[in-house]
Each structure stands twice: as C-alpha cells, then as structure tokens.
Predict the 3D structure of the following.
Amino acid sequence: MNTKVTPSKEVLAEAARQHAILSEGTAGIYPEKGVHGKDGLFDKLVKSLMENRPLRIKLGMDPTAPDIHIGHTVALNAMRKFQDLGHIVLPLIGNYTALIGDPSGRNSTRPPLTEEQIMQNAETYKEQIFKVIQNDPAKCKLMWNGDWLKELSFADTIKLCAQVSVAQLIAKEDFGNRLANQTPISLHEFLYPLMQGYDSIAMFEREGCDIEFGGTDQTFNCLMGRQLMQARGIEPQIVMTFPLLEGLDGVMKMSKSKGNYIGVTENPTDMFGKTMSIPDSLLDRWYSLLTTIPAAERPSHPMEAKKKLAHFITARFHGETAADEAKAAFESRFSKREMPTDLPELSLPQEAFATLTDLVVAANFATSKSEARRLIEQGGVKLNGEQSKDPTAPVKLPTPFTLQVGKLKLAKVSLTA
RNA sequence: GGAGGGAUACCUAAGCGGCCAACGGGGGCUGACUGUAAAUCAGCUGGUUUUACCUUCGUAGGUUCGAAUCCUACUCCCUCCA
C-alpha cells in the first residue's frame, strides 16, 4: 500500500527526538507497531518530516458544561508540545455531538441539553482552551462538528452505519455493562462513536487529520475514526490516549457532571483551596499528570507537597503573583485560622436581624429556616468570631459585623439604610 | 402484539396497615481533632409559628378510626417472547 521511500538518518534522528518528547505521559499509542519499527506516531513524524508538512492533531471536546477542568489540560498540554514542535492543532468543539452526549463511562442516558446552552458553553470553551494552547492561526485551527454533521443526510448516515457491526458496539464496555445491568441504551447513543469517527473524515478533508487525542475512555471512539477512515480509503489517523485524572474525591475520574473538578477559570483562591482538599493518596498521580516537577523535588510532607502542587496549578492559570497570594491567604486563613481581610459585603433590612435564624437565611447561607437552625445548633455559626448556639436570639450587634457559617461562608453584614 | 417485573427523599436501597418524616450505604453539611478544605471520630441531612402541626413514598381515586404499605384506573420504565 505504501510506496515507501527510505528516510534519511537525519529524518530518523529528528523523528526520534520529537517522538521522545511527545510520547511522554501518554497512556497508549495506536497502532502500537508501525512500519519504521516503532509505533504509529513515529511513522507520522517521519512522514511529516519527509513531506515537510506539519501534523494535524484533533482533540474533540463536547461543550456539555460551562467549564473545562484541569483534567482536560493533560491532553491540552500535550497539544501544546506538538505546537511547540511546529505542528498544527485542531481543537474540535462538539457542538453537534453534545446534543447526544457521549455514552462513554456512563451507565445511563445523558439528559439532553438545549442548543442555546451548548452554544453558550462552547463560547467559554474557546477562551479556556487557549489558556493552555497557543491561539496562533498558523498553529491552531478551531473547528465545530456541527458544520458537517448537520449536513449529513439519512442516506449518508446509513452508509456510515454499514461500516460497523452491532457486535462491535456491544463489545464496548459501557454498552456491555449497561446491557448486563438492564440499563436502557437508546439507539442514538450507538451513533455517537460513528459521529466522532465521521468528524475525523470531515476534518481530514478540510485540514487533514493525522492524530486524534483522547482520554483512555475515548480509545474505542477514537479507533472508530481509524476504522471509518480506512473504509473510506483515506489514510487513517493514529490515536494517542492520555490517563484520566482522578477528581477531588480521589476515586472517580474528574468530571464535569460529577462536580469533583477544578475548572480552569476558577479564581486562584478556589483553585488553591480545592487542590489542598484532595486526599493524600492522590498526590503522586496529580504531580505526574499535571506538573513538570520531578519526583526528587516533591516535598515528602503531604501538606507541603500539596501546597507546592496547588501553587503550581494556580500559577499556570493565573500567574506566579496570584498563586503566591492564594497560598498566603490559605495559610493565614486555615493554618493560622485568621479571618480573611476582604469579606464580601452584605446589607440586609432591619427585619433580617429579628433572630439569628433569620439572619442566616437572609444572608443566603441556608436555604430554609430549619437548615439555618441546624447549623446554629451544631455550632457552625459565628458572629464577630463568637460562636452562638441560640437560633432564636435576636441579633443586636452594632453593624457592620462579620457573620461566618461553616468554614467557607463569610460576610460583612450591615444594615440597609 | 403477548407475558412478567418495577416506580420510595440528592443517588442507592429497605419498609409491605398504626412504633414512618420513613433502616442501611453513598454523597453533602456541621463540629472535634490535626499536618490542609487530607485522614480519623461524632452529629446532622423535608418544611413551619418546632415538646405540636403541615407536605412528602409515580399520578388520580377508593377501602379503613388509620395507608409508602390493601383495592381500582392511569402514566412511565425495564426484561423476555413475537
């Protein structure tokens, strides 16, 4: 199939150099065996060098939530490395596939989003991914899969379906599990991998598509792209997968829908604080997937290690200064237990001060009076730093005073004129 | 089209006439302690005018002194067969 021209020594050496940089931190590269004795990535690099044509790297993201999180940055970071070596990245916003929802890793059908929600999310995605990859038109072309998926006719779709067997889809773990657990699978979910695969074809025709990136949970979907490209008679992409980052709870993978994530747009304080809240057992993992800090430079004390990690992550998205400030604020607040200096201000009408319960509800720190009462009785409420356990006591402090509920909810309260 | 099974609070899952605002687990929240918002331990986790009352166990009716629990109809979901 390939009329192979033997690559020169220089080409092989350069390909090897790039290969070493680019394959670091990946979970898998498919195909594992290439024609030049290494893997598919090596082949693509050789080809790129010989034809003097940069590689095009696809990374699809469905805008199903307003934020991307630091788990995504594992792959984005790898894209950045490709850019730095002169290749072109093609971030793909799945504005059409988001309508279906990727069934990967799910055990139930995803609730549908409206088109407006999706477009809103997509807009913020655009800004966010450029915190990691370079938004240089020569090195980056943003694409939308609605551009071509919308145009597909039913006949096209059937043709596509004919390339894939049902057995193959059922063999996919998620579907297999769901069948076994008697959880429903909607037919349209079967189509998801086909859509993702078709993206690769459409992108190939427009810009080229040499490599597709994805988390390890995306392996099946990405390989579907290879299969469909082959069936169409075009050169198939190779697939590079990346390990999934565990979320704040330390068990489940970091995921927008599970809420255990750190968004790349979050403010420095939260970013630092959330990192500090990960379980100790997650430290090594986060260090290796999110930082470039060598093992030798990681503090052995868990808290120090966590602070260094939190600082690194915060600095990446907000700069050194902001990270320093976040660290200092964290230390004063939690290590030395001082009150933060910049409290949000809150002015409330006279009737909010009738009882402590009313105050907590009026400040929006509890959703019902019963909840407020519970918090107070449990000792979670402080006025000017003084714990108060009587829910019915009127609040007679001179304003402004500080109201604290739990560790995180604080405000400086004053009376509305 | 036929035959079964199911629907309980954020999730999961017990309860099968009064002791049920409803066991347990998960998650979340609060506190203690600390090395941090980690770990561990303890408490809380429908609402209100809070020793009481109100609303909640798919929906609508019914039986009963009394129903999440029994009956009827309906809706939705799952499995198998066709």
